[in-house]
């Protein structure tokens, strides 16, 4: 076994050197290359320039000594793809580097089967009883403005079913409100920024400092911004969760999530091993047993989309700004929620933190540039039915609950993503029935604006385009679809 231990140390040192080398590269280079090196390609992968997809369920071993060392976690191993796999390793490596970009923090990553699995993985280890005070009640503090699935996980799966109290922050810019909800039984602070769908935002550096003052971690969902526009770990956060499904894997082929953590995080509970390297601890122990980790195919597809992340976020952000400005001036729009608009109440706060990464080193810009992402919302003047009428009249914008796609997508959160949390929950999150969430894709913004304009014409009583001709007739259109698929 000694031989395997010695070889493992050489491999680990090679890995450390590669990570150090990649940390010295710019964001776009990291996104394109990640931890897949030319040496690895030539030595192990037939010279393949792109990372191979490792679809195997398990790894074979040379002998019993290697198997024993591997399954005891004494040497690096892929062992079983429920736990680890080379394709997962490449995705986790690039995400850890991108989220830690521009900071001194050492980061590690755990890739999961979905964004919701990433959130559960991030919060559950902190919600176990304290061995020193097993009867003490447990609570956590989180913003009320969160994605509908997160709201359900926190309010139903944690609060209602497990009696773990979710203390809701209503005014997330009020630091005193955050602090008033923290006590000796609080396990973490949690926030989403910008929030989906209403563009909630908070002072992430100040909230991180508050968390650490009380000896607890700050967990941030940064799905909408991605590390191309915001890197919370560099601002003091301990853990970032990403629904990789969304903007990172913009093609729409992937369901995936990720948790990226700084090493040596702050926590009142948990073992020294958990605090030292949270993501790796999860991979090797809790998630080994619970099994929520990503599949190799989804990991490989996500890697391919991530290569162009910064370029896409720049283009989509600029297009969204144009669309937001158009909607702000439209007679049928009550209000536009987009942090990039100067009249938005959180614009100045967001402008302190949301920048296109490396714009100052870009030949196109040469100076720091604010970018605010692809997600926005707008309120239609009128009632819920007027909102549905406008929504139903879209012909270029897709009606779906997705976001971050190459194609523009819209939804009415009150009847879709946030319907399950009920009217009271939506009121807390600021989601009225006349709100439409719009995620602008990579199309030309003129075409999205034209589609919005013709959809609004339904409120003027003018004829509008029909996006799905014949579908309202029921059986006939279904028969045509059946003929197509047969």
Tell me the strand order in the biggest sheet.
1-7-6-5-4-2-3
Could you tell me the radius of gyration in angstroms?
24 Å
Level-1 CATH class name of the largest domain? Alpha Beta
Residues in β-strands, percent: 5-15%
Shape: globular
What's the CATH H-level homologous superfamily of the largest domain? Type I PLP-dependent aspartate aminotransferase-like (Major domain)
What CATH calls the topology of the largest domain is Aspartate Aminotransferase, domain 2
Number of DSSP strand runs? 12
The percent of residues in helical segments reads 40-55%
- Which residues sit in consecutive blocks of at least 5 with pLDDT less than 50? 467-486
Which short descriptors sum up this protein?
486 residues; alpha/beta; Aspartate Aminotransferase, domain 2; Aspartate Aminotransferase, domain 1; seven-stranded mixed sheet; 20 helices; 40% helix
Could you walk me through the main structural features you see in this protein, from its secondary elements to its overall organization?
With 486 residues, this protein is α/β, with parallel strands linked by helices. It folds into 2 domains: 86-306, Type I PLP-dependent aspartate aminotransferase-like (Major domain) (Aspartate Aminotransferase, domain 2, 3-Layer(aba) Sandwich); 309-473, Aspartate Aminotransferase, domain 1 (Alpha-Beta Complex). The chain contains 20 helices and 12 strands. The strands form 2 sheets. A 7-stranded mixed β-sheet has the order 1-7-6-5-4-2-3, with helices on both faces. It has a 5-stranded mixed β-sheet with strand order 8-9-12-11-10. It is globular and about 80 Å long.
């Amino acid at each position: 076994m000694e031989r395997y231990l010695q070889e493992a140390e050489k491999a680990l040192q090679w890995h450390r050197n590669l990570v150090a080398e990649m940390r010295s590269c710019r964001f776009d280079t990291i996104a394109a290359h990640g931890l897949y090196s030319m040496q690895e390609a030539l030595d192990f992968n037939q010279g393949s320039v792109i990372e191979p997809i490792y679809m195997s369920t398990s790894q074979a071993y040379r002998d019993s000594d290697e198997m024993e060392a591997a399954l005891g976690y004494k040497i690096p191993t892929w062992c079983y793809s429920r736990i680890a796999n080379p394709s997962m390793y490449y995705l986790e490596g690039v995400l850890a580097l991108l989220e830690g970009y521009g900071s001194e923090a050492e980061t590690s990553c755990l890739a999961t089967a979905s964004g919701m699995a990433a959130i559960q993985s991030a919060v559950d280890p902190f919600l176990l009883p304290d061995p020193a005070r097993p009867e003490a009640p447990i609570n956590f503090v989180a913003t009320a403005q969160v994605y509908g699935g997160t709201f359900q996980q926190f309010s139903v799966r944690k609060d209602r079913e497990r009696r773990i109290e979710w203390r809701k922050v209503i005014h997330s810019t009020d630091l005193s409100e955050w602090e008033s909800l923290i006590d000796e039984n609080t396990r973490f602070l949690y926030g989403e920024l910008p929030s989906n769908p209403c563009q909630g935002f908070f002072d992430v550096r100040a909230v991180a400092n508050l968390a650490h003052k009380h000896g607890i971690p700050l967990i941030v969902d940064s799905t909408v911004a991605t590390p191309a526009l915001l890197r919370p770990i560099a601002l003091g956060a301990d853990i970032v969760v990403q629904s990789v499904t969304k903007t990172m894997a913009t093609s729409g082929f992937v369901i995936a999530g990720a948790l990226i953590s700084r090493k040596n995080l702050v926590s009142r509970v948990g073992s020294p091993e958990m605090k030292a390297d949270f993501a790796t601890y999860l991979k090797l122990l809790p998630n080994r047993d619970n099994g929520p980790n990503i599949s190799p195919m989804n990991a490989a597809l996500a890697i391919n989309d991530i290569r162009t992340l910064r370029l896409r976020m720049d283009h989509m952000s600029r297009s969204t700004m144009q669309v937001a400005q158009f909607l702000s001036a439209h007679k049928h729009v009550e209000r536009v929620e987009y942090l990039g608009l100067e009249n938005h109440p959180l614009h100045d706060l967001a402008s302190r933190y949301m920048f296109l990464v490396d714009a100052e080193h870009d030949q196109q810009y040469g100076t720091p540039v604010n970018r605010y992402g692809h997600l926005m919302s707008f309120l239609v003047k009128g009632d819920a039915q007027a909102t549905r009428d406008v929504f139903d009249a879209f012909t270029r914008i897709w009606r779906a609950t997705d976001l971050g796609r190459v194609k523009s997508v819209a939804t009415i959160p009150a009847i879709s993503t946030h319907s399950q949390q009920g009217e009271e929950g939506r009121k807390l999150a600021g989601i009225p029935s006349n709100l439409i969430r719009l995620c602008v894709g990579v199309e030309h913004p003129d075409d999205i604006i034209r589609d919005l304009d013709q959809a609004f014409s339904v409120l003027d009583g003018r004829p509008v385009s029909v996006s799905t001709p014949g579908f309202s007739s029921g059986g006939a259109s279904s028969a045509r679809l059946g003929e197509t698929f047969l």
